[in-house]
Structure formats: structure tokens, C-alpha cells
Amino acid sequence: MAAGGTTAASGAPGNMSGFKCPAGAEAIVPTIPMSAGSPVANVPPAGYDPENLEGPVWVNGYLYLSEIAKRANGQAGQEQPQGGRIIRFQPGKTAEVFLTNVGTNGLALDSTGDLVAASHKEGGIVSFDLAAPSSTPKKVYASMFDGKRFSSPNDVTIRNDGNLYFTDPSFQAGSVKQSAERAYRVAPGGAVSIIDAAPSPPNGIALSPDQNTLYVGGARLVAYPVSADGSLGAGKDFPDQAHGGALLGTDGLGVDCAGNLYVAIYAQGTVVVVSPAGAKLGTITVGNGVTNVAFGGADGKTLFITRMTPPSLYSVPSSIPGYPY
After folding, report:
1. 57, 45 in Cβ contact below 8 A?
2. Is 187 exposed, middle or buried (0-12, 13-18, 19+ CB in 10 A)?
3. Buried b (16+ CB within 10 A) or exposed e, 53-84
4. Is there a contact between 44 and 87 (Cβ–Cβ < 8 Å)?
């Protein structure tokens, strides 16, 4: 929620995953650990050497993750990485390969329970059938704008009414790409529009529990009011100067049941926790290259954190449940 907004009410809708916060969770004050501790063993699985681990989403007892393949010349921003896998991890067991050669980054869920992916391979937003796994997308939500494929879709979130929002930097872009690094809205009918004044390059994206605020991260973090039809009002830096100024260099975003934001700061190697009003609540130290966060576990009280350098996963107990992507 934007600064000064209200937190989610008990029984407020979840996101497309179907997750709903338990009654009273909105009143819990989170306990913020100082460190994420050690990475989870055997994630990613042995026998593969990805460049990055991203896009955590919790579904039916599993955490799904994107492994981003290394670029052919090993240099960021040069050649588009090929392949890439989606893996899934069940706590207490060894991670396993779910899909190969998919080239995905951020992951989410749609109303049918399919896995939605920001795909730099396809240059758009696509979905995969969790019940009948195939590397061929089941559905394409958006693949073109202004006559060209998107650059390298990075992260995605979906409102309960079907409005979809995603970021499109050029981090994994090939030679064909958009003229600018932007964030977009895909309306339920499929119309694609630019999210005005989004950070450039944009990165993480998330909705508040009441789905009335959209957060877009990147060079800074911006909060947009969301109208009843899913369109957006003017964005404002979040937090504002009254709370210490904007967060810079933000990557993935997570949200707990009280509307607190969990902001991955890549260069600092931290996850900064900020209240819906913009007050800083604490900082979790992970290590250089932290990329994204999501809640999961049987009760929604495990915070999963992904990291690029080296590609790894962290599992942090939480005092408050949160949303699965």
C-alpha cells in the first residue's frame, strides 16, 4: 500500500495463487532476523551450473524456481542466455528438475493454477501446465509491443480480476528488443499498455494484499494506486523522504499478510523490510547478489530468498505468513 494507506483486513483476497491470509495475521508485527543464515543444501541440483537463481513461488507443497542459464560469452548484458530450467524443491528433500529449456525468470500463478512465467526466451509472459509438464508454453499472455517482442521479461504479478503487470528490462535481451526498458500492464482482454514513470530499468513487481497498490522496483521503488478496473494512477517514490527516502537498486519483492514489503537489494546483499506506511522495520543480511523473495511452507511462515552469487536458496522462519510469490 502507498504511504499512509491501510493494511489488509482479515479475510482480504489473496493473489491468483488462491492463498488467503489467516484471520488476525494483519495485526502481527514481524520479527526480522539479522541474517538469512546458510543456504539450503542441494539447491540448485548438482550437475548444472546456472548463472542465477530467481522467481520463487510456493505451490502445493513445492517451491518452484527459475535457473537462468549462463550467457555464451559469460558477460552480463551481451548475448541472450539459452535454455534455463525450472526446478522445484520440497523442504527436506533434494531439489528436482521440473522443466528444461524454458528460459524463465519471475514466476507467478494464474486463476487456473497454471505457472505463469516472465520468459526472456519467448520474449513475453507465458504459462506452463503444472499438471501436465511441458517446456512448450500452454498460453501466451503477451509477446509483442509496438511490433516487436519484449526485451527480457523479468518479473510478473497478477491481480484477482485478471490484470497482469510485468517488468521488461534488457538484462537477458538478445538483438531484438524494445526501444526502452519499461514496465507494462496487460488488461484482461489482452491489451498491453506502458506503466508510466516506472523505474528504468525496472525489476521486481508486486501487489499489496488489498490489491489497491502496485509496487515496481528497479533503480528506485515506486508505488502506484490501482483503480477498480486495474488501471494505475500516478506513481510515487516509496518510501518517501519522510521515511528516509527511496530504496535504490531494488530487485525482487515479497509481501506479508500485514502488507509489509520485503525488498531484495542486489548490490547490498540484503532484504530490507518496510511497513505499508514506509517505515523501515529491519534488514536481513544474505550476501552479495540477493535476487528475490517469496513466502511458503505449510503455514506460509517461511521466507524463501534467492541469490545469484553463488546461485543459492535461503529459508528463513517468519513470525508472520505472507504471499507465495
Report:
1. no
2. middle
3. bbbbbbbeebbbbbbbbbbeeeeeeeebbebb
4. yes
Q: Residue ranges of the domains in the chain?
A: 25-317
Domain 25-317 has CATH 2.120.10.30: yes
Mean pLDDT, all residues of the chain: 90
Q: Which helix (H) or strand (E) holds 302?
A: strand 302-307
Report pLDDT digits (tens) over 52-111. Answer: 999 999 999 999 999 998 866 545 444 555 679 999 999 989 899 999 999 999 999 998
Q: Is the dihedral of CA 37, 58, 12, 231 positive or negative?
A: positive
Tell me how many degrees the CA angle 279-214-287 measures, rounded to the nearest 5.
Answer: 55
φ, ψ of residue 52 to 5 degrees: the values are -155, 155
Buried b (16+ CB within 10 A) or exposed e, 152-185: bbbbbbbbeeebbbbbbbbbbbbeebbeebbbbb
Rg (CA), the chain: 18
Sheet holding 96-99, edge to edge: 52-59, 62-68, 85-89, 96-99
266-304: burial string, b at 16+ Cβ within 10 Å, e else: bebbbbbbbbbbbeebebbebbebbbbbbbbbeebbbbb
pTM over 0.85: yes
The CB-side HSE value for 25 (13 A sphere, CA atoms) comes to 27
Q: Quote the distance between the C-alpha of residue 210 and its chain's center.
A: 17
Q: How many residues does the chain have?
A: 325
Residue 81: phi and psi, rounded to 5, are -70, 140
- Give start and end residues of each alpha helix (H) in the chain: none
pLDDT tens per residue, range 31-49:
999 999 999 999 999 877 8
CA distance 207 to 202: 15
The arithmetic mean of pLDDT across residues 213-230, rounded, is 97
Say if CB 140 and CB 158 are below 8 A apart.
Answer: no
